[in-house]
Structure prediction request, 231 residues.
Amino acid sequence: QTVVTQEPSFSVSPGGTVTLTCGLSSGSVSTSHYPSWYRQTPGQAPRTLIYSTNSRSSGVPDRLSGSILGNKAALTITGAQADDESDYYCVLWMGSGVWVFGGGTKLTVL
Amino acid sequence: QVQLQESGPGLVKPSETLSLTCTVSGGSVTIGSYHWNWIRQPPGKALEWIACLSYSGSTNFNPSLKSRVTISVGASENQFSLKLSSVTAADTAVYYCARARGFPVFAFEIWGQGTMVTASS
Prediction:
């Protein structure tokens, strides 16, 4: 069973930069997994941030960016703001019509 | 503007079948190159992809749930449904429907607001 790994939690100072990662329990993440990233606040549905590794969804500011770093997908937030405090999920396309979510990262801005 | 809305019972007895419907406003599940999905989130836990129904009618499933899941076009072409059999307390979750794009995007782009389903006697 494929496991997609994310840091359980991360902390960033206001105005700072943070990079969240998304890996595989076995193997490397590549652009062929079409990594996508979602933000979720309590009680709300997820919101799409990044798709196809590094494409921003409509309305997403350019201080959020996606990339491949080493063997993982990454979401970098620069100039962190209070309203960036959320849960962040990555999703990988595993082929054959199957998607797998990561366990999510709880980002704290303080 | 396409919108998705989940509906169905909020309480299901253990061993029974959970049935949910997603209504697509402003679109059809059989027109366009989209993939229609069910995703769930147990309280305090991560999101979990359940199943996908493609515009072509093909289906795909999370291997861990495949034996219990049915996904299909609903009563009308702007609806699709989820059936999850033999539910247990572990199936208690918020269930979301979501529209995804295929190649070259492969991402969930529109989400419903979610509906809470509790499996309890």
In short: The radius of gyration of chain A is 13 Å.
